[in-house]
Amino acid sequence: MDDVPIGLLFFSLLLLIACSAFFSASETAMMSLNRYRLKHLTESGHRSARYASMLLASPERLLGTILLGNNLANVAAASITTILAIRLFGDVAIAVAGFVLTIVLLVFAEVPPKTLASKYPEKIAFPAAHVLRVLVKLAWPAVALINGAGRVITSNFGKDDSDSGQVHRLNADELSTAVRESGEDVPQSHQDMLLRILDLERITIGDVMVPRSSIEAVDLEDEWDEIKSQLATAHHTRIPVYKGSLDNVVGTLHMRRVLHLIESEGDDATLEDLMPLVREPYFVPEDARVTQQLLALQDERRQMGLVVDEYGDLKGVATLDDILEEIVGEYTAQVPGISEDVHVEADGSFMVNGAANVRDLNRRMNWQLPTDGPKTLNGLIVEYFEDIPQTGTSLRLGDYTLEIVQTRGTGVTVARIRTAQPAGETDYSSQAASA
User: Fold this and answer.
1) In terms of Cα–Cα distance, which of 236, 326, 224 is closest to 269?
2) 269 φ, ψ to 5°?
3) 421-194-305-414 Cα dihedral, nearest 10 degrees
């Protein structure tokens, strides 16, 4: 090497450092690629993405080629550095030259390239994929030999059953986290909708149903004039009909068919004319998952299900609108004649009906009241106290202060909720205090 010009040696050293930087950046960039975006780009016909996807399909082969190239570049750079040190400063400079080269490689060929590659993986991985696919083919014999030797060594530590060549499959919780971290790439309204869809698997029909006490229904044993009056003032499109008691539901009635009957028969319409319009009831178990019943309602071409408990007693009704509101949020108009569950007071507090559904309150008011227990606000309060609390009693649930405003013999009818944390308050645990 004594005949090689010093300038050529320096140029070769710079070239090898650049090669080392290329391999370092390529390794980090290829491993940092978003596999789902990569799959999307590949299916969209992106050529560089297709090359990168092909390389990542055999990660052992890809990493073997990158590490082989990186080590060859580093070893060659160390050799040239040694030659330059001897020719310029003598044998005493060999140790210093090795230390300097280590610093140079870390500064120019390791830390900055890998940092940039982790920040901009696509900008580095896609161009590098064109070079790497050629190198993988050329270096395959050597890489196969190295990988084979590595497998012999690692086989003594047990078999690795991990499927490293496959895209990691996300469960519902991991997918929820991915949606939350999507940032501005997905609008907030779309994120909320996706999260609600993922949350459907945990929700039962009992969580979304209209409770029995709020059901609008018609008793077929009433006088015909009273039945006609109820039908004329009905607030819903579909109404359950029963005989004597809600536990004896005989079916559901579609108001559009009633209008057709009235239009055709007028005042001559009778209860006997109404009965053929009654459709047999469709019962839904209270503990059934919303996702299962959504499909069941679609299969049965139903808009409403009558919710029953394990004893067959009617607990409420669930409609497709109730289920869809769990996904898209509140969209149905307020029913005329039915008061709101929440009233805003002048001091910023909220007067809430004790029969209000907790999930509805959370969705409409953007609150975080616990939903893993009772379905209504009254049930939540009564479960906490394990008794019917007296008027004026207060309790703290997380960040919310609940004051009992009005009670009736069987429960809380009105409660005041304050969401602002009192000044200086640091204890977020639930605590009850008598006013």
Assistant:
1) 224
2) -65, 140
3) 10
Helical pair 121-138 and 47-56, crossing angle rounded to 10 deg: 60
* 231 and 269, same domain (yes or no): yes
Angle, CA 385 vertex, CA 384 and CA 389 arms, to 5°: 130
Structural domain of residue 246, as residue ranges? 221-274
* CATH number (domain holding residue 265): 3.10.580.10
Over range 133-142, report the average pLDDT.
92
How sure is the predictor about 26, in pLDDT bands with cuts at 50, 70 and 90? Answer: very high
Angstrom distances, CA of residue 255 to CA of 75, 100, 236, 258, 274 = 84, 87, 8, 5, 11
List of long-range contacts for 34-41, beta carbons under 8 Å, 24+ apart: 34/121, 35/167, 35/168, 36/167, 39/167
Query: Are residues 346 and 298 located together in one domain of the fold?
Result: no
Which pLDDT value is given to residue 164? 46
Whether residues 13 and 89 share a domain: the answer is yes
CA count, 13 A, side-chain hemisphere, 303:
10
Which amino acid appears at position 359 of this protein? Answer: R
Within a domain: 360: yes
Do residue 241 and residue 202 come from a single domain? no
- Same domain for 45 and 99: yes
pTM: 0.55
3-state secondary structure (DSSP) of residue 310 = coil
Domains held by the chain: number: 4
Tell me: do 14 and 132 sit in the same domain.
yes
First to last CA, the chain: 94
Name residue 52's amino acid.
Answer: A
Asked whether residue 162 is domain-assigned, the answer is: no
Q: Is the separation of the CB atoms in 58 and 66 below 8 Å?
A: no
**CA dist 210 → 216, 217, 318, 425 (Å):** 10, 12, 6, 37
- Is 336 within 8 Å of 352 (Cβ atoms)? no
| Confidence check: pLDDT of 428 > 80 | no
pLDDT tens sequence across 284-326: 998 888 888 888 888 888 889 999 988 888 999 998 888 888 7
